Amino acid sequence: MIHSELLFYLSMTMIVSGIVAFFVLLFVPSPYGRNANSAFGPPVPAKIAWLIQEIPAFLIPVYFIIELLFFKTSDSANVRDAILLLAPFIMHYFQRSLIYPMLIREGKPMPAVPFLLAFIFCIYNGYLQSSYIINYGYFHWDFISAAGYALFAAGMAGNIHSDQILRSLRKPGETGYKIPHGGLFSLVSGANFLAEIIEWTGFALLNRSLPAVAFALFTAANTAPRAWHHHLWYLKKFGDEYPKNRKAILPYLI
Ligand code: NDP
């Protein structure tokens, strides 16, 4: 199989598994955090789980860029394009694997099954995005790329801000749940998830590649059902106290 075919099949597999995951996760909430379930394996401490499962998606693109810069003969336009296209991915996973875990406040341990699935996914996706960009990525100097960066930046800022709001709800030692307010939470219960979807939609616009579109779709398929379950959970737990106009994942709609 030639390399471009391999990346095509990896992307299509991601899209198909995203569709399957979407329907499964609508009925079975992803089993971590408030939905953690001991049937899904022994617990891994939250900070360690997030660090280990996410770090491949940071290290793999960094490795590819270092190889391109120092060990391959490639023209400067190719190097420039690879850096411009991969930089948002590297920035996101630097934050997610090295900063986010340190900030988690009294997070529930992660059962082994979702931990291992996330770890495998980060290797798979880290390779897919990096290998595609290094070999075939082309940076378009146009308005769509500017919109892609803007969307990615807004999504990443919204994601970090929403996670910060959630963290600030707990005092040291507290493990319970409260109603989040402010930022995107004034619109949806899954504010961090909505922002994450915006981020990877921006990345897909910037890259205009099948792997990047597959990842944006996979993220939406994975996080939208989680936002939906969180929303139902809040409504059940807080009843009339919960803001009436707040939707699950799509402002004003769902
Ligand atoms: P959650 O919103 O379920 O939890 C985030 C953190 O906030 C956890 O530590 C949780 O504690 C705590 N928390 C959540 N709600 C409350 C509340 N009401 N009161 C107090 N504390 C609360 O997010 P996830 O853990 O699912 O995801 C974390 C990050 O990873 C997000 O930014 C998300 O976008 C991203 N992600 C990306 C995916 C992708 O496909 N790209 C997939 C999944 C997540 P506890 O652990 O005790 O519940």
TrEMBL record:
Principal localization reads endoplasmic reticulum
Report any Pfam family annotated for this entry: Steroid_dh
What transmembrane ranges does the database entry give? 7-28, 48-71, 109-127, 139-160
Instruction: Show the GO cellular component annotation of the record.
Output: endoplasmic reticulum membrane
The enzyme's E.C. designation: 1.3.1.22
Keywords on record: Differentiation, Endoplasmic reticulum, Lipid metabolism, Membrane, Microsome, NADP, Oxidoreductase, Sexual differentiation, Transmembrane, Transmembrane helix
- Protein localization: Endoplasmic reticulum membrane; Microsome membrane
Task: Please name the PROSITE patterns in this protein's record.
Answer: S5A_REDUCTASE (PS50244)
* Keyword Secreted in annotation: no
UniProt-listed Gene3D superfamilies = 1.20.120.1630
Q: Name one GO molecular function term.
A: 3-oxo-5-alpha-steroid 4-dehydrogenase (NADP+) activity
Q: What does this protein do?
A: Converts testosterone into 5-alpha-dihydrotestosterone and progesterone or corticosterone into their corresponding 5-alpha-3-oxosteroids. It plays a central role in sexual differentiation and androgen physiology.
Family membership noted in the UniProt record: Belongs to the steroid 5-alpha reductase family.
The name this protein goes by in its record: 3-oxo-5alpha-steroid 4-dehydrogenase (NADP(+))
Instruction: Report the source organism.
Output: Macrostomum lignano
